[in-house]
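In keeping with the milestone schedule agreed at the kick-off meeting, the structural modelling team has produced records for the first pair of proteins. Each record is given below as a sequence line and a structure-token line. The laboratory manager (R.T.) confirmed that both were archived under the project's standard naming scheme.
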Amino acid sequence: MDLATLWFWIVAALFVGYFVLDGFDFGVGMSLPFLSKDDTDRRVLINTIGPVWDLNETWVIVAGAALFAAFPEWYATLFSGFYLALLLILLALIVRGVSFEYRHQRPEVEWKARFDWMIIIGSAVPALLWGVAFANIVQGVPLDEGHNYTGTLLDLLNPYALLGGLTTLLLFFTHGVVFVSLKTDGEIRERARKLAVRSGLITIVVAASFLVWTGFAFGTAWFWGFAAVAALCLIGSWLMNARGAEGWSFGLMAVTIGTAVLALFSALFPDVMPASNDPANSLTIANASSSDYTLTIMSWTALIFLPLVLAYQGWTYWIFRKRLTREHIPAAAH
């Protein structure tokens, strides 16, 4: 395996980390109107991700930086062609981050309600648009001879891409609700478990539809292998949640999301940005990558620093592993 191919899969792994970790963040944010009965419930939900949400978001920064350094042509085409969609994702992430920090600054109900909706919308928009973006990348978009995107934002909102967006939205929502059941106790935990049972069934149907469509249109042997693992783990996660085994359910959901992302990258390989109008205009691993010298330096840097990042993040999750209840929320705090 040459360095360009290696970095294609490293980028895939970085997006796996981002979607698995920030995915349940999005799900928790979207679950606020479904799982909370009052402000204390909402504070419990927000506190489940309070210590880790910003750390989870750094994965998309690392993934974007790796994409820029390893595949500058891919980065340029993607970020110029999908500019408005990615800008909406960025604005949603900013709104969500601001909401976490400012929600508790004033005691008024109206003040908190505004920021609660900002958290909900700031979680739902990226969850939807990331799926739309990756579905379009796999499907291919119109490119000219200079690898510039020649379509519009509306062209990206095609049926296949919207199904991909709905799939990631539901996957992240269910992933987040399962995380709530894993991190809380009492009534919230029970409400989260029941909600995950209902949302999980819908997720299974929608995700299966998207994977089958992708498989028949763009599938490879590796795609079908990863897709099969994702499907089995998604069903297993639903069954474990129904039995009250939240830890197993959350772990299997993480594997579901991870293998689904790898399935999409397998369907894409060896292209990185297929041209739907003319295959000759497609970006591939070979014509979009940086020099071997650049990739060699990046490889050594990743080998040194990535284990440190993983160790630190694992330690953070271990420190904040305990369940939360309404009793953990001080009555006088706002």
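The second protein of the pair:
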Amino acid sequence: MSKKVLTVEQILSEIVKRMQKDQPPDELAEAVVLSMPIIHPLDVKGRNWDIAETRKDTAHNSHVRRVVEEARFEFYLSRPLATS
């Protein structure tokens, strides 16, 4: 399976959409604040980005992490354009 290349904004949007779809019923999506995805060299599993845990300590950090991990396997983070 080939991965789609997405921007930071697209990755965040996809993660939020998935969290809202699969969210445990007792947690509001608005309570989750995500850090920006950070690009890194390809790891042994073929992923080139990661995202820090949520900034707010919620009862569902494991749910958020699961959604992020699934997205890491599906999407590459596009490299930022070089600025002069």
